[in-house]
Write a structure and sequence with these properties.
By secondary structure, this protein is an alpha/beta fold. The protein has ten helices and ten strands. It has helices at residues 30-39, 53-61, 76-93, 111-124, 136-144, 174-189, 202-211, 232-235, 252-269, 283-295, and strands at residues 3-6, 9-12, 43-47, 66-69, 98-103, 128-131, 150-154, 194-198, 216-219, 227-231.
Amino acid sequence: MAEEKTNNVEVNAEDKNVKASLMKKGRKSIQYLQKCKNEGKKLVQVCPADRDKYFAMAADMANCDILRLTVPGENIEMRIANSAWWIREIRSAAQYIHINFYMQTPTYSSKEKALEKGSIYMAEGANSLLPMGINNETLKFMSDNYLVVFGHVGALSGWQTDGSGGYKRLGKTAEEAMRVFKMAYEYQENGMKAMTIELTPIEVTNAIAKKLRVPVISIAAGGAADGCEMVDFDTFNMMPSPVSHAKSYADFFKFAVGAYSAWANDVRTGAYPEDKHGYHMDAAELEKFTDAMEKF
């Protein structure tokens, strides 16, 4: 199959025939993710967790595959109101990465609302949609109407955990592991094109990923499955204490505080700005300006 490289992204010739809103040559579509699974190429998924668009830009420049995008806001109404704008902001900075957009629960409280909101989000630049804990009827309605759902199984994040005893590991028994698998299988059969699996044992994670046709990304679930996600708070060592499933690759605060401190010290000691950091007025104009100032 003929392939070319665009901005460090491998593009399959067949993928370029796929048309979608705001499609850019080389963008990592759901077809690209499926191709990676089929060929055994591990997928890399990042979650900036409300960080700014420059984290997304850096992930795109590093050739990461998937960005799980959440929306900043003080409350759920603000997050919903900000969604279309935030997708555009992130897409303007990260042109190629696959954006998997986290839908707020009220936006899929009915299948009609899910179709309405999901259509807007994909038109604004999302490649796929994440409705956490969606029911099969709504999922199928979205899928039948050409929306791309890239969902989630295993432990649920946020307020959804309250009714099940909190955010906890799942699948430690055979019966529980089968419940996770059956949910994943039903999601696949109702049109889900990819999914993350969270807080399940390594053996369960890998077995489910192998059994399903669609890509399965591991989150705090040990085995790599078809790929892994890590939250930027962990990647950049921004948490108060490390968590067992994560590995830090940089120290954001050490880097950022060091840069600010060095600059502040230069300002206070007179080392910055130097003459080269500005420019000078023409001598004749300076004389006229000085005379005018003295007469004012």
